[in-house]
Write a structure and sequence with these properties.
Elements: H1 22-43, E1 51-53, H2 54-61, H3 65-73, E2 80-82, E3 85-89, H4 90-99, H5 101-108
Antiparallel strand pairs: 1-3, 2-3
Length: 109
């Protein structure tokens, strides 16, 4: 989980005698909302990043290594391979789970 000290903001340092514009406040609000959503997502057990590794997918879907390999081989689960490491897009996996297609395919496997 991200520590609040690890969250980086792109806001310049504000001095005591400096004026803050409405746009500055709106920008701060947007960044704050993004940070809160990310923290809430991580708190709920969902990954805070888009690309997941195989061990994360196996844990999330409660799959064995061989079942995950089967789903990849059959083209049932989208993935990308980079430098020998297989990555899975968390949004695509969530869509598959929500549609029920992945559960149907896992029952047939």
């Amino acid at each position: 989980m991200a520590n609040h000290n690890e969250i980086q903001h792109d806001f310049p340092k504000v001095n005591r005698d400096q004026l803050i514009t409405v746009q500055d406040l709106l920008d701060f609000k947007q960044q704050l909302i993004v940070d809160i959503k990310k923290l809430l997502k991580e708190q709920s057990g969902q990954p805070g990043h888009q690309w997941l590794k195989a061990f994360e997918i196996k844990k999330m879907l409660r799959l064995s290594e061989s079942k995950l390999q089967y789903l990849r081989d059959k083209g049932l689960i989208p993935f990308k391979k980079l430098g020998g490491i297989t990555y899975y897009n968390s949004e695509e996996i969530e869509k598959l789970m929500a549609s029920g297609k992945l559960n149907d395919q896992m029952k047939m496997a």
